[in-house]
Amino acid sequence: MREPLCLWDIEPGRKARVVKLTAKGSMRRRLLDIGLVEGTLVECLGKSPLGDPRAYLIRGAVIAIRSRDCRDILVEKEV
After folding, report:
1. What's the pLDDT tens digit per position in 6-53?
2. d(CA 69, CA 78)
3. HEC assignment per residue over the chain
4. Contact status, residue 6 vs residue 36, Cβ threshold 8 Å
5. The whole model's pTM is what?
6. Are 20 and 74 in contact (CB under 8 A)?
7. Does the pLDDT of residue 1 top 60, yes or no?
8. Is the distance from CB of 70 to CB of 54 less than 8 angstroms?
9. What's the confidence (pLDDT) of residue 41?
10. What's the pLDDT at 32?
11. Contact 2, 55 (CB under 8 A)
């Protein structure tokens, strides 16, 4: 298995698969509610004009996630 990256390391146009969530409390609940569970495929669609947040396609929905929250989402790049 490759070394997991955080979701923020995935460049626009690339895909990754969720390996683990390290978030705690209400943020963990929110991430789970939008479908970020182990094995979920996520595609980075782009970044905002200032670079933060980025837009991700998660289970058919476009979700904006800030860099500080992406640090708690560990992923593996899709080849």
Report:
1. 999 999 999 999 999 999 999 999 999 999 999 999 999 999 888 899
2. 21
3. CCCCEEHHHCCCCCEEEEEEECCCHHHHHHHHHCCCCCCCEEEEEEECCCCCCEEEEECCEEEEECHHHHCCEEEEECC
4. no
5. 0.89
6. yes
7. no
8. yes
9. 97
10. 95
11. no
Residues 6 or more apart whose CB falls under 8 angstroms from that of 3 comprise none
How many whole angstroms separate alpha carbon 25 and alpha carbon 53? 21
Residue 79 banded pLDDT, cuts 50, 70, 90: confident
Superfamily of domain 5-77, CATH level 4: Ferrous iron transport protein A (FeoA) (2.30.30.90)
Q: Are the C-beta atoms of residues 5 and 14 closer than 8 Å to each other?
A: no
Question: Residue 17 pairs with which residues in a beta bridge?
Answer: 41, 76
Q: What is the token pair recorded at 55?
A: 């837009």
